[in-house]
Amino acid sequence: MLNKQDLKQHFLGIFEIAIFMRAGVKRFDPDFNMMLKSFLWPLVFLPFAVATSSLVAADQQFMFLLLFNFARIAVTFSISLALVFLVAQKIDRKQYIYHYITTSNWFEIAMFILMLPILGVLSFGGALESMQSYIIFITCLGIVYSGFILTHALRIPWELAALIAISMLFIQETGFDVLEFFKDGIHSI
């Protein structure tokens, strides 16, 4: 697994990225083994993301929502990674793809921390409407962080990174729309 020094470097990298320091991206090893280990974080946070998404639509069957939200997250994550890979391949930046994936996966820790207030409000039966401004803020911040990581990990212009980050948001929102379509279809049966 990871030793204490690697963990320290990675958490420092997360903090530095959070305050938009380029050095933060350089703290993550760009090798295949480290990339595979970095998938631990999305897997750890996946149940929380699925549960949060499922709590939003409490009027549906919870198990149905868990299954569909898991599928939505897995598919949109895979499509987003495929998009980054295709762009990296097209502009001859494939050698940096492991670095991007590792950095992005580790940064999921910071994004999870930012999502904790939403999970808390939903867990205690609070109204989602009270969190709308915060949700919009976190969504915008997530796009900015994604663009920042793309720019410095793949070594691409920030304009291209912004296009990729916004495309990833489009993929995620389309996943929500598809989920709503299936929920409405099953609910009408």
Question: Which features does this protein show?
Answer:
189 residues, mainly alpha, 0% strand
Any overview of this molecule?
Helix 1 (4-18) packs across helix 6 (97-123) and helix 3 runs parallel beside helix 6 (97-123). This protein is an all-alpha fold and 189 residues long. The protein is built from eight helices and no strands.
Topology:
Blueprint: H1 4-18, H2 23-26, H3 32-38, H4 40-56, H5 62-90, H6 97-123, H7 132-154, H8 158-187
Helix pairs in contact: 1-6, 3-6, 4-5, 4-6, 5-8, 6-7, 7-8
Instruction: Please tell me the total number of domains.
Output: 1
The structural class is mainly alpha
Question: What is the tally of helical segments?
Answer: 8
Q: Helical proportion?
A: over 70%
The counted number of beta strands is 0
Mean pLDDT, as a whole number? 86
Question: How many angstroms does the end-to-end distance come to?
Answer: 48 Å
Taking all Cα atoms into account, the compactness measure Rg is 17 Å
How big a fraction of the residues is strand?
Answer: under 5%
Main beta-sheet annotation: none
**Shape type:** globular
H and E order: HHHHHHHH
Poorly predicted spans: none
